[in-house]
Amino acid sequence: MTLTMHIGEFKARFSEVVEMIKNGVTVKVIKGKSGELVGYFGKTLEPQKPAKRTLGFFKEQGVTINQEDLYWSDQELEEFGL
After folding, report:
1. Segments making up each domain of the chain, as ranges
2. From the CB of residue 55, how many other CB atoms can be counted at a distance below 10 Å?
3. What pLDDT, in 10s, does the model give residues 15-58?
4. Strands across the sheet with 36-41, in order?
5. What confidence tier does 12 reach under pLDDT thresholds 50, 70, 90?
6. Where does the source fall among the domains of life (predicted)?
7. Secondary structure in 3-state letters for the chain
8. Please, which residues have CB within 8 angstroms of residue 27's CB and are 6 or more apart in sequence?
């Protein structure tokens, strides 16, 4: 079960929140009116695995991109208008 709390409520009820976490509850802490995420607090939180990224279109076209291809000289950048 995931419980959402504003940061002020989280701080005010900290001792109670610690007991809830011990009992298996995950707490999502947000701040402000926008609901900006501060963090998740819980007993069995798994770190997120980075998503494997693929080249998509280029992979199907037989194009290979090397890291060296991603760097441009100052002259090339000027030609691009950057």
Report:
1. 2-41
2. 11
3. 999 999 999 899 999 998 888 999 999 887 666 677 777 656 77
4. 2-6, 26-31, 36-41
5. very high
6. Bacteria
7. CEEEEEHHHHHHCHHHHHHHHHCCCEEEEEECCCCEEEEEECCCCCCCCCCCCCCCHHHHHCCCCCHHHHCCCHHHHHHHCC
8. 2, 3, 4, 5, 10, 17, 20, 21, 40, 41, 42
- Tokens 């990224």 — which residue? 53
Give the residue from 1, 6, 9, 14 showing the smallest Cα distance to 34: 6
Place of tokens 């707490």: 27
Place of tokens 């770190």: 47
Tracing tokens 């995420």 back to the chain, one arrives at 37
pTM of the predicted model as reported, rounded to 2 decimal places? 0.52
Give the model's pLDDT for residue 60. 74
